[in-house]
């Protein structure tokens, strides 16, 4: 009798292990992300199923980033970037496939591709955590800053770090992959969503006076004033009204040659508060010139102005 029970148990276990897996077990199971693919060959069906999973992630990221978007200077989300991110991340996971089934009516193979959410999260989270730690490091440094302009610049650096690592899109990917795990990062995501408003608020508290040494027709002066105005920093007309003084030093590096007059201009820029340096930048423009000296000088300062503006745009979070 005992032998009969043993044989029955073995037969039952063999039956359970050999029961075929049906696509519906994954398509209707919240523990998995699953999509169906069709193709004239088994390989085509698998490829199309994988493409459907990638499309699912891309659509979820697009919706999620739109919901969490902050009011900015018009920077648009790139669906091309979304697709690249999805492809690179899904390559990390073990995407599995059901046994191909041939549909005689459609004359196509049918395959279901599926990802185990929890297993994939265990692979994905360490990569996300690394980027979160980097962002929070910059954010923490900014929070400790007392001076408004210095704090604005450090919060700007934190935002740049988040954008370089595509942190918001990675959070959106996490939402799609494993919502329970993604919820752990809600406080970090809130910090990120409020960052631009913090920067704008701090910009409004800063008044700056701009002074240029060795300018030409106020070209440098106007360029820097434009950058500050676009960054919502108030430009004032005297040092007495200012919280900060921005001084630009230009070096012309002029050459008089038989072919004409040439300049390779450079600059240094410094922002001070009570004679203490808060920010500095430097750079140079490409060599430019002309037969006519006045035209050559005009071109040189116009080129130098663009170099100054580009340096400020990066640190004051303006698109180039």
Account of the 3D structure:
With 320 residues, this protein is an alpha+beta fold. 53% of the residues lie in helices and 21% in strands. The chain is built from twelve helices and twelve strands. The strands form three sheets. A five-stranded mixed β-sheet has the order 6-5-7-10-11, with helices on one face. α3 crosses α7 and α5 packs antiparallel against α7. The protein is elongated. It starts with a helix and ends in a 5-residue tail after the last helix.
List keywords for this structure.
320 residues, 4-stranded antiparallel beta sheet, disordered N terminus, 21% strand, 12 strands, 12 helices, 5-stranded mixed beta sheet
Q: Give the helix proportion (percent range).
A: 40-55%
Strand order of the largest sheet: 6-5-7-10-11
Shape estimate: elongated
Query: Which structural category do the helix and sheet elements fall into?
Result: alpha+beta
* Average residue pLDDT: 85
Return Rg in Å: 30 Å
The number of distinct β-strands equals: 12
From the N-terminal CA to the C-terminal CA, the straight-line distance is: 84 Å
Q: What is the percentage of strand-forming residues?
A: 15-25%
Order of helices and strands: HHEHHEEEHHHHHHEHEEEEEEEH
The biggest beta sheet is recorded as:
5 strands, mixed
The total of helices stands at 12
Unreliable residue runs: 1-21, 70-80
Question: In short, what is this structure?
Answer:
By secondary structure, the chain is of the alpha+beta class. Helices cover 53% and strands 21% of the residues.
Task: Summarize the SSE layout with pairings.
Blueprint lengths: L1 H17 L5 H4 L4 E8 L2 H26 L11 H12 L5 E2 L3 E3 L4 E9 H28 L3 H17 L2 H11 L1 H4 L3 H8 L1 H9 L3 E7 L5 H12 L3 E2 L8 E8 L2 E4 L2 E4 L2 E8 L2 E9 L3 E3 L2 H23 L5
Parallel strand pairs: 5-6, 5-7
Antiparallel strand pairs: 1-4, 2-4, 3-4, 7-10, 8-9, 9-12, 10-11
């Amino acid at each position: 009798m005992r032998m009969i029970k043993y044989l029955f148990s073995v037969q039952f276990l063999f039956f359970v292990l050999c029961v075929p897996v049906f696509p519906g077990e994954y398509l209707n199971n919240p523990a998995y992300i699953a999509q169906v693919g069709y193709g004239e060959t088994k390989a085509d069906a698998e490829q199309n199923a994988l493409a459907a999973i990638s499309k699912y992630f891309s659509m979820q990221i697009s919706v999620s980033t739109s919901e969490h978007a902050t009011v900015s200077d018009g920077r648009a989300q790139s669906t091309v970037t979304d697709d690249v991110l999805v492809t690179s991340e899904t390559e990390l996971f073990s995407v599995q496939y059901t046994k191909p089934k041939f549909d005689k009516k459609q004359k196509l193979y049918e395959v279901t591709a599926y990802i185990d959410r929890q297993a994939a999260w265990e692979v994905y989270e360490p990569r996300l955590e690394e980027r979160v730690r980097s962002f929070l490091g910059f954010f923490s440094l900014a929070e400790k800053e007392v001076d408004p302009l210095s704090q604005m610049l450090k919060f700007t650096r934190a935002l740049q770090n988040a954008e370089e690592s595509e942190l918001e899109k990675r959070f959106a990917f996490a939402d799609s992959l494993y919502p329970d795990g993604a919820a752990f990062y809600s406080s970090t995501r809130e910090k990120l969503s409020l960052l631009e408003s913090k920067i704008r608020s701090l910009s409004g508290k800063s008044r700056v006076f701009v002074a240029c040494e060795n300018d030409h027709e106020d070209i440098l002066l106007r360029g820097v004033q434009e950058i500050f105005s676009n960054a919502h920093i108030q430009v004032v007309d005297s040092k007495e009204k200012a919280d900060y003084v921005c001084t630009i030093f230009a070096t012309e590096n002029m050459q008089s040659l038989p072919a004409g007059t040439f300049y390779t201009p450079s600059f240094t820029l410094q922002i001070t508060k009570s004679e203490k340096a808060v920010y500095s930048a430097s750079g140079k423009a490409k060599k430019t010139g002309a037969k006519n000296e006045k035209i050559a000088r005009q071109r040189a300062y116009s080129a130098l102005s663009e170099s100054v503006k580009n340096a400020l745009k990066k640190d004051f979070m303006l698109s180039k």
